[in-house]
Protein: Nucleotide-binding universal stress protein, UspA family
Organism: Haladaptatus litoreus
Amino acid sequence: MYDRILVPTDGSAETKQVVAHAAKLAEAHGAELHAIYVVNSATFASLPMETSWEGVTDMLQDEGESALEDVQKVASRYDVSLTTHLVEGAPNKEIVRYAEQEGFDLIVMGTHGRGGIDRLLLGSVAERVVRASTVPVLTVRVEKDEVTPKAEATEKAKGSS
């Protein structure tokens, strides 16, 4: 059913739960697992002009590489092949673009399940990906300090809204 699974990471501790879920799925289906970290280019806009762009770029890329190394550590516990990708742009747009261009069968993402004013103020990359993607998206609800992800998983089938 799944041959290529994409798991975006933001480097948070909670993402490790999502990676484990994606790796289990990849292992069960004999699928390739790919991890993507998007260096959020919008981060640059809020910096003072005197800030060294090169230094900021290096710092953000280092964070991304560290996050992808964490994914490798989690995925190594499973019998899966893992390929990592570091890209730059708006996270939700780059995740969708990458998944669609590279022919992925599934995107597995974490969500905090925020509602109300929190979601309005903070937004949700996962929600934007679900709305924009033609690739099915499986969301795994995670909570801070929670050891395992909640059993909530929502799949958006191709073409549904």
About this structure: The CA atoms of residues 151 and 157 lie 19 Å apart. The first helix runs from residue 15 to 29.
